[in-house]
Amino acid sequence: MSTAKTPQRSDIAPAPRPADTERQTAAGKVLWHFTMSLDGFVAGPGHAMDWMTGFSFRPGLVEEYVATTGAVLGGRDGFDAFPDAGSVYGGAWQGPVFVLTHHPDDAPPAPGVTFLDCDVAEAVRIGLEAAGGKNLEVLSPTIGRQLLERGLLDEIDLHIVPVLLGDGIRLYDNPGGVPVRLGLLNGDDHAAAVDVRCRPVR
Fold first, then answer.
1. Do the beta carbons of residue 156 and residue 32 sit within 8 Å?
2. In degrees, to the nearest 5, what angle opens at C-alpha 20 toward C-alphas 87 and 30?
3. Which of 40, 122, 127, 186 is such that its CA lies 20 to 30 A from the CA of 143?
4. Is the separation of the CB atoms in 172 and 3 below 8 Å?
């Protein structure tokens, strides 16, 4: 009879890392949140969002963000493209929406939307106060970049979908800037590469 130990999973290979982060919590965070194409775009040209169909997400994901978001902070370009505040999360979320703009006077009035003409740090303060202990969700690449530069961003949540857009609005567009190091929240290795394997759909 062999005395060799039956191989355990840890003897063969390390356990795979989870594909998803832990569930989002309502903890008064400033959260930059987007679904993003594999090549780094969060919207198509002119803020088009018609590409964002036919993808599957973890069950309950949308409900998770609906429950943990207390207020939304966006930019003027995004508002001009989608002025209906009731469309956030397909209408499942209701709450205060703030739009940061240098030209609030020419913005068309919109129910549930407050236009702010102030420093981005003040906009965050106002948004967090309105969020009432839940998260302030930032839905603007430009504002997100400013908050990152100012050290005012707590977390970045990205849902990377298998599509290449090639053109549009990038999540982070900062020509001439320096690399920004991030700590991955999936698993224990905060510097781990995230492996993605795709094939063209024919």
1. yes
2. 55
3. 186
4. no
pLDDT in tens, the chain (202 residues): 333 443 344 444 444 444 567 889 899 999 999 999 999 999 999 999 999 999 999 999 999 999 999 999 999 999 999 988 888 998 999 999 999 999 999 999 899 999 999 999 999 999 999 999 999 999 999 999 999 999 999 999 999 999 999 999 999 999 999 999 999 988 888 998 888 899 999 8
* Six token digits for residue 117: 């003409």
Tokens matching residue 17: 């890392």
